[in-house]
Amino acid sequence: MDYPPFSDYFYVAGNPMIFVDPDGRSVKTVIVTGEDADRATEKLNKSSSLDITRDQETGKLIATGKVESESDRILLAAIMDSQITVRLETTDAQIFDSKDGTKNIPLLPGGFEGSTSNSNATKVTATQLINVSNAEVISDVIGEETGETIRHEINEAYYGALQNPGGDYDSAYESAHSTVSKVDGVVHPKLDLNRDKSRSPHVFQIRRKGTSVWRDLGPMKKMKR
Q1: How many domains does the chain fold into?
Q2: Are 49 and 72 in contact (CB under 8 A)?
Q3: Rounded to an integer, what distance in angstroms lies between the CA atom of residue 147 and that of residue 32?
Q4: Which of 29, 136, 147, 199 has the smallest number of Cβ neighbours within 10 A?
Q5: What pLDDT digit, counting tens, does each position of 106-143 carry?
Q6: Residue 184 lies in a domain
Q7: Is residue 81 situated within a structural domain?
Q8: How is 60-123 classified by DSSP, letter by letter?
């Protein structure tokens, strides 16, 4: 049985409003790519009640085990959804330009690129960027595990596609981020962001609002397309 949390008779994870499985095939539609794909998967698995692995050829995530949290339930829904594909692209860049024209968005640690869909929105692909090294620093600052942060990024992309298929960063990010943040289980404190221009290349720094200690992120680098 591919999905132990569900009965053999539990059609499309009990959610026919979202999932379609006309011929009984299993669906695995969260794809992790980039040089840090394995590290991201390892961190995600460590923080999840599910057992999560990554197919080395396709990049697709595979999940087994028992769901024990709402955030893992959303993650499993994303992995099983036959209509929505989430592509989590790992990068060592610090900023990116969104496809909607928004410039120089910091990867703290992730960024929603928006989604594309066919004419009737039956197939939607959402893209989420993440800097795993930044995720490690930021997770420590806000008081959660790196894998929890990575799961948030995947779930954010999933809800961005679910709520606003074909939407871009400007139109879909805020709603998706707000929805997923409510089930993360961690209160995310506000952060201050600083750009240390005394170094070459410049370095982003973060700290919890109201504190005095800055933490370095990586050297300034823009994501190439």
Answers
A1: 1
A2: yes
A3: 14
A4: 199
A5: 999 999 988 998 877 679 999 999 999 999 999 999 88
A6: yes
A7: yes
A8: BEEEEE---SHHHHHHHHHHH-SSEEEEEEE-S-SEE--TTS---EE-SSEEEEEEEE-TTSSS
pLDDT of residue 212: 94
Residue 82 has a pLDDT of 87
User: What is residue 161's three-state secondary structure?
Assistant: helix
C-alpha dihedral sign at 134, 127, 88, 145 = positive
Q: Is residue 67 in some structural domain?
A: yes
Which residue numbers in the chain have pLDDT < 50? 1-15, 17-26
Domain extent at residue 184? 11-189
CATH number of the domain where residue 143 is located: 3.40.390
Q: Which residue has tokens 């999932």?
A: 19
- Say if 119 falls within a structural domain: yes
Going from the C-alpha of 174 to that of each of 111, 148, 159, 169, 185, the distances in angstroms are 11, 19, 11, 8, 18
Instruction: Provide the 8-state DSSP code for 223.
Output: P
Which pLDDT value is given to residue 15?
A: 47
pLDDT of residue 91: 96
Distances 54 to 36, 131, 184, 208 between C-alpha atoms, Å: 12, 18, 23, 33
Amino acid, res. 64: T
Burial of residue 139 (CB within 10 Å: 0-12, 13-18, 19+) is buried
